[in-house]
């Protein structure tokens, strides 16, 4: 018999194998391209799921609420200035600038 933790990991593996998070991100972002920031968002969502309590993941799956849960997490990560995604990716990008075109002196 598999433990709750093993079952939750299997569910998250199924979500990844079926690209469900990527599908929802594409739908919310109105794009087919998951380059850059959106690819990072998908990875962050999987990390959030792995950190979430196993019993809640299993319950969401068993009650067919997982798609709604994923949509809510994705929207919160995209729109919130206090989300892990904002602090990890967007804030960094907002506070950085490209080094393209800059000249560096030779030593």
Written overview of the protein:
This protein has 107 residues and is mainly α. The protein is built from 6 helices and no strands. It has one domain (4-94). Helix content is 68%, strand content 0%.
Short description:
This protein is mainly α. It has helices at 4-17, 20-29, 37-51, 54-62, 66-79, 84-94. Helix 1 packs across helix 4 (54-62) and helix 2 packs across helix 3 (37-51).
Notable characteristics:
single chain, 107 residues, mainly alpha, 0% strand
Topology:
Blueprint: H1 4-17, H2 20-29, H3 37-51, H4 54-62, H5 66-79, H6 84-94
Helix pairs in contact: 1-4, 2-3, 2-5, 3-6
**Helix proportion range:** 55-70%
For the termini, the CA-CA separation is: 65 Å
Number of helices: 6
The dominant shape is elongated
Largest sheet data: none
Proportion in β-strands: under 5%
- Written as H for each helix and E for each strand, in order along the chain, the element string is HHHHHH
Tally of distinct domains: 1
Q: Structural class, from secondary structure content?
A: mainly alpha
> Taking all residues together, what is the mean pLDDT?
84
| Number of beta-strand segments | 0
Low-confidence stretches: none
Give me the Rg, rounded: 17 Å
């Amino acid at each position: 018999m598999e433990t709750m933790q093993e079952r939750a990991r299997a569910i998250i593996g199924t979500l990844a194998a079926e690209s469900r998070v990527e599908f929802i991100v594409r739908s919310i972002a109105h794009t087919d391209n998951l380059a850059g920031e959106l690819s990072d968002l998908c990875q962050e969502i999987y990390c959030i799921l792995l950190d979430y309590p196993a019993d809640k993941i299993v319950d969401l799956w068993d009650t067919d609420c997982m798609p709604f849960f994923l949509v809510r997490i994705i929207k919160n990560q995209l729109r919130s200035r206090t989300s892990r995604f904002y602090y990890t990716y967007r804030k960094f990008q907002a506070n950085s600038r490209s080094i393209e075109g800059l000249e560096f002196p030779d030593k």
